[in-house]
Amino acid sequence: MTKSETTKTKGADYDAVIIGAGFGGLYSVYKLRDEQGLNVLGFDSAGDVGGTWYWNRYPGAVSDTESYVYRYSFSGELLQKGRWKTRYLTQPEILDYMNEVADHYDLRRSYQFGTKVTATHFDDVAGLWKVTTDKGQTVTAKYLITGLGLLSAVNKPNFKGIDSFKGQIMHTGAWAQDANLEGKRVGVIGTGSTGVQVIIATAPIAKHLTVFQRSAQYVVPIGNTPQSAEVIAEQKANYDDIWKQVKSSVVAFGFEESTIPAETASEEVRNAVFEAAWQRGGGFYFMFGTFCDIATSQIANDAAANFIKTKITQIVKDPVLAKTLTPKDIYAKRPLCGNNYYDVYNRDNVTLADVKADPIAEFTPSGIRLQSGAEHELDVVIFATGFDAVDGNYTRIDMRGRNGVTMREKWKDGPLGYLGMMETDFPNFFMILGPNGPFTNLPPSIETQVEWIAETIEMMEAKGRASIEPTEAARDEWVGLCRTIADMTLFPKAESWIFGANSPGKKNVVMFYMAGLGNYRNAIGAVKDGGYQTMVFDRANALV
Ligand code: FAD
Ligand code: NAP
Questions:
Q1: What CA–CA distance (Å, rounded) separates 503 from 390?
Q2: Cβ atoms of residues 379 and 185 within 8 Å
Q3: Beta strand pairing call for 468-470 and 168-171
Q4: Cα 451 from Cα 455, distance rounded (Å)
Q5: How far is the C-alpha of 118 from the C-alpha of 133, rounded, in Å?
């Protein structure tokens, strides 16, 4: 990548540096470079575009957002060109789509791939960001935009003896492209969304599959059925209405959220609604499309949980296995779905190891030994152990704002973020899916944020502003609001990555704005329309 002569910012190499080439980074390059004529440079440690869908190539990887809304909405042309055959997109299909977007807008020419950003320091004197990479280069830019991904920094527990294992170890979020599981003795640690998918896909091909389950999960069918040309044509013809609904909804998954409480419904009605949702498929639909209070009322939550628990006992033939597979906690993690998940445990080549009752003691050269002494001989161990979610990729970079203040120090008690996009003392710094952003189907939220960021930068350039950052009061108020909203739901009562509870050493904190995309769009729109009164402009200049 050579420096362009067209940089508008005096004394800077680029107007903006954009980190990440997933949905967020790619759209940012398009908005700032092609619509605003800024000179931008993108970095990604990956070898190409795709973000999540570049890295997560494990067998069975599929989106559980329906195909017609797991995509950008901004281009009618791209929407009409969209191709899919089934209700949900598989990882190769999403990666193809992202490659097509990159080709369509010639986005790769603004990226340097295979390059990890190691440090981002704000230079108070020059008023510019200095971005350093693992290739030893440093570039300067006025704006820094991070599309680092909220589920991207892998969480790989360091089990005792792990280096002694003679077989292959892989994390699902950094999948070895040549991995072959056929005929192997495979172990899977983890039963979250990823674990469920990889377990379903591996059981039929592995010689033997051992699932190391710490917490049993509520898994409903995904319902990944073929979609007819007629249905797809109808979706394409109705995109204006579809996006209007998605962007004013709560979870942005393309269905109308229910307005009917389960609390007051009869057991007969509840079970009929749950059964219809079970047949239809979809994890978010089961939680938000059936009744309006499953995530807020303990009574409603118990009703949904009990329905799924009954299904488990009906499906799993061995009652001891069924009991181990039955969740003990409330139904308030990120909803999971997969086809015939519980049936997997009826197979002769599948073993379930309950590592809550009998934890993993160590890896040995030939497999995994549990605390009881039970040994599981394995050729391959798959870590489906999730991510250091939301702030993981931020704290892995040496990020420093005004006067050298470090992000690690600022976020030592948990990540903070104003509108899910900005942080105090970090001028001209914009995060995509940063802390305290919306909890939804993500592409529409990503687009919402990138558009707001681009509009803010456009305003800055039009007014000749040097810098923008939120006030501490505004940031604190937003974080407080997110806490209040989260506490109105049952989500904080379950231990999961949504509150940082999955990573050892991380504090359980609020990391999302849980009032839905429609409300979020109104909130950030009001900041812009109100003239950015919650921001400080040109702070360094004001202090002189
Ligand atoms: P990402 O796609 O995560 O991209 C971030 C990029 O930043 C990565 O390529 C990474 O290499 C790069 N990066 C990070 N740090 C650095 C650094 N220091 N230097 C250089 N590059 C860096 N969401 C849904 O809404 N629906 C789904 O069905 C769904 N399914 C998912 C399935 C899986 C397996 C996973 C892991 C996530 C899923 N998600 C889903 C969430 C998904 O991450 C988002 O939908 C979306 O892809 C995020 O896009 P992004 O651009 O914000 O980040
Ligand atoms: P996850 O939900 O955090 O699940 C990680 C799993 O690993 C959990 O079962 C956890 O057990 C287990 N685990 C972690 N550390 C362990 C340890 N030391 N010993 C034993 N078990 C351990 O991660 P994920 O499954 O990768 O999913 C993360 C998110 O990515 C999802 O919530 C979703 O948003 C997204 N995703 C979506 C899809 C999709 O369907 N579209 C697919 C994959 C991922 P505990 O539960 O006990 O902590």
A1: 11
A2: yes
A3: unpaired
A4: 6
A5: 5
Distance of alpha carbon 500 from alpha carbon 496, whole angstroms: 6
Taking CA atoms, 157 is separated from 174, 189, 386, 391, 500, in Å, by 14, 10, 10, 17, 15
Q: How far is the CA of 22 from the centre of ligand 1 (A)?
A: 6
As a whole number of angstroms, the distance between CA 201 and CA 180 comes to: 12
d(CA 52, CA 55): 5
pTM of the full structure: 0.97
Q: Which atom of ligand 1 has the smallest separation from the CA of 52? A: 2
**AA letter at 325:** L
- Per residue in 222-279, pLDDT (tens digit) is 999 999 999 999 999 999 999 999 999 999 999 999 999 999 999 999 999 999 999 9
Helix spans in 337-441 (H): 392-395, 407-410
| SS3 label, residue 459 | helix
248 CB-near residues (< 8 Å, 6+ apart): 517, 518, 521
Inter-residue contact 14 to 32 (CB < 8 Å) = no
Beta carbon of 45 within 6 Å of any ligand 1 atom = yes
Which ligand is closest to the CA of 175, given by its number?
A: 1
